[in-house]
Design brief:
- By secondary structure, the chain is α+β, with helices and mostly antiparallel strands.
- The protein has 9 helices and 11 strands.
- Strands 1-8-3-6 form a 4-stranded antiparallel β-sheet. A 4-stranded antiparallel β-sheet has the order 2-7-4-5.
- Strand 4 and strand 5 form a beta hairpin.
- The longest helix has 27 residues.
- The protein is elongated, with a radius of gyration of 19 Å.
């Protein structure tokens, strides 16, 4: 288990002794697709890391509309901030696929951190990176037009998947929600980008053909 824990972003590079302490408090969970892990306003009792599968974290409006905050995959952790603040989860978390997770109980993990300042510093660095990511997402959603938001999203996928040939991780309706628009608008922008030969689209597969123009759209230097 120590080797698997070392692949988690929060614990990468920790010495053997620290990994041993962490592995002693981990609970392994196997989940089915669409399994609810926690709900908004539920008391935060622990946080999760993913070893296999994907999990979406989202908020629901009274109308039933979802706003996806983030999609997490193997090596990512989620639900950690309210655990250490001592409060409730601010959003819902649901598995998008069959998933294998590690669960870290709040009390047990806080005890380990109290005993090991190096682990606490590593967690602060990771949380700072997460905050920057969320700030960038808010800026992209609030300051960019839909083509710019979509361009930023595709470049983010390119970074995470390491290729110009992308596989969409979400249905297009959920991508539209994540980008703060509707599916019809997203489809129009995808068609326009295809016509301009910036990308090619085939089902869930998108290939980036013109990275320079895509980056210009994301930066707001060019209009579609």
């Amino acid at each position: 288990m120590k080797q698997s824990i070392n692949k988690i972003s929060l614990f990468a590079g920790l010495p053997e002794e620290q990994l041993e302490k962490i592995s002693d408090v981990v609970i392994q969970k196997k989940c089915q697709k669409n399994e609810l892990l926690f709900s908004a306003d539920e008391k935060a009792s622990g946080f999760y890391s993913i070893t296999k599968g994907k999990v979406k974290v989202f908020r629901s409006a009274p109308s039933g509309k979802e706003q996806i905050i983030h999609v997490f995959g193997p090596g990512d952790i989620f639900g950690e901030v309210p655990v250490f603040q001592g409060g409730s989860y601010p959003a819902n978390a649901v598995t998008m696929t069959k998933a294998e997770l590690y669960y870290f109980g709040r009390d047990e993990f806080r005890r380990i951190i109290a005993e090991d300042p190096d682990l606490a510093m590593n967690m602060l660095a990771m949380l700072s990176g997460r905050l920057r990511q969320l700030v960038n997402q808010v800026a992209a959603l609030s300051l960019s037009e839909v083509p710019g938001r979509l361009a930023s999203y595709l470049l983010l996928l390119r970074s995470s998947q390491g290729s110009d040939e992308l596989t969409l991780e979400l249905p297009k309706g959920q991508i539209a929600s994540y980008l703060g628009t509707i599916q019809e608008t997203l489809s129009r922008v995808l068609k326009k980008m295809t016509k301009e030969e910036i990308i090619s689209v085939e089902g869930k597969k998108i290939e980036i053909l013109d990275e320079i123009t895509l980056q210009a759209l994301a930066n707001g230097d060019e209009q579609l």
